[in-house]
Amino acid sequence: MSSAADYNMSVGYAPNGIVVPPWLNKGDNAWQMIAATLVGLQSMPGLVILYGSIVKKKWAVNSAFMALYAFAAVWLCWVTWGYNMSFGHQLVPFWGKARPALGQQFLLMQAVLPESTHFFKDGSQETAWINPNYPMASMVYFQCVFAAITLILLAGSLLGRMNIRAWMIFVPLWLTFSYTIGAFSLWGGGFLFQWGVMDYSGGYVIHLSSGIAGFTAAYWVGPRSTKDRERFPPNNVLLMLTGAGILWMGWAGFNGGDPYSANVDASIAVLNTNICAATSLLVWTCLDVIFFKKPSVIGAVQGMITGLVCITPGAGLVQGWAAIVMGILSGSIPWFTMMVVHKRSRLLMHVDDTLGVFHTHAVAGFLGGATTGLFAEPTLCGLFVPVTNSRGAFYGGNGGMQFLKQVAGALFIIGWNVIVTSIICLVVRLIVPLRMPEEELAIGDDAVHGEEAYALWGDGEKYDSSKHGWYSDNETNLQARNKAPSGVTQNV
Predict the structure, then answer these.
(1) Does residue 300 fall inside a structural domain?
(2) What are the residues whose beta carbons fall under 8 Å from the beta carbon of 255, sequence distance 6 or more?
(3) In a domain, 4, yes or no
(4) How many secondary structure helices (H) and strands (E) does the chain include?
(5) What is the tally of structural domains in the chain?
(6) In degrees rounded to 5, what are phi and psi of residue 122?
(7) What CATH number does the domain containing 132 carry?
(8) Which residue windows are coiled coil (predicted)?
(9) Rounded distance between C-alpha atoms, residue 51 and residue 402, angstroms
(10) CA dist., res. 23 & res. 472, Å (int)
(11) 59-104, pLDDT tens digit by residue?
């Protein structure tokens, strides 16, 4: 006879009922949660480690904490109002209605994007709404980590000087009034979605918006201290590579999860992601060797990122050869804008974009969206895009119009983020200063958090007997050994 414990364990495998409803596909549900977790790992700990190690030592704690705070803050905002503003019922053509995503009745129902039904011009249905075979809870989780990483990427423009209190206010405001607009417009069934603008996994929603918003916010916050702008070496290159590696591998979930199913298009997306990233890294490195005579590790990481960003709008929509072409472009054009154009532009030199997010995300994101409009393959488009007969310009037909749609969609995201980010910064400035005071800028983590990343002397700090003690470690150990009783050995 089966025990009560055996019966309770078997409930999870019941073919019907609340736990395993008929519409649930366990494979799709498992992949969607794994993909979401991979994207979450890109932020926590991936970008936390990357930010904490790529900056000057005195800003390691502050940079890592800005990423950590954003990741946590987005979660609460997302389930309270953000999800339905991005993927719920329409309020206006670019924004959904705010409502919580917390009740079990909502979270246990089959996932659906209610405004994603696409209609022909005569009003007849062209494609049905997006209705994956897993619960709404999985969809809310998956989309939340995308929102979180967008704010963290934006923070890369502001490291080393933004007032942490201002950042704490900025995060929920920007999520509410900027991110949700782009997400609903392009993914949730808004006007750009209905028009057929392609953004497979966030080249516009995440990367273009974070790059433009980061650059805009950097303008309003102001620059780092003069000393930091002149010299800002990474405090741990090997740890930076660890964070970069987590970011790269996590992109399998980033692009592989967006078909909302463990289907063949997800496989194409993951493969193309790695092809483009590898190509871009190699091209960037070759350019460094040709023009600067040395391969730069930081440059290689930048090239990796631009490749990942560029492929994102079309990961499951282009063929492998196109991913290579996109990698060549993403490894060279952002390199050119960062290394050449930046130094010749008065505006770019004036705005202190700490990690060059404008180049690695805005330029690469726009490039990816535009090249998707060129190389999107008709058969692959049919697996994902709601507008039938969609294709890139390279494949003729209406492809030329698709390229123009891609450019127009990018211009909307750019314009909205410049305006809204500026308004948010001006509002926050009325409450708290956007930039740290000069005394905190001079000291860094110890002044801002009362903590330091490493138990080491500060940059350029000389030995101070009143602060560090009269004896060095070797002298202290030698005296301890001399004072030890006969027959007792001290561990030195």
Answers:
(1) yes
(2) 200, 201, 269, 270, 272, 273, 311, 312, 315, 316
(3) no
(4) 26, 4
(5) 1
(6) -85, 0
(7) 1.10.3430.10
(8) none
(9) 37
(10) 69
(11) 999 999 999 999 999 999 999 999 999 999 999 999 999 999 999 9
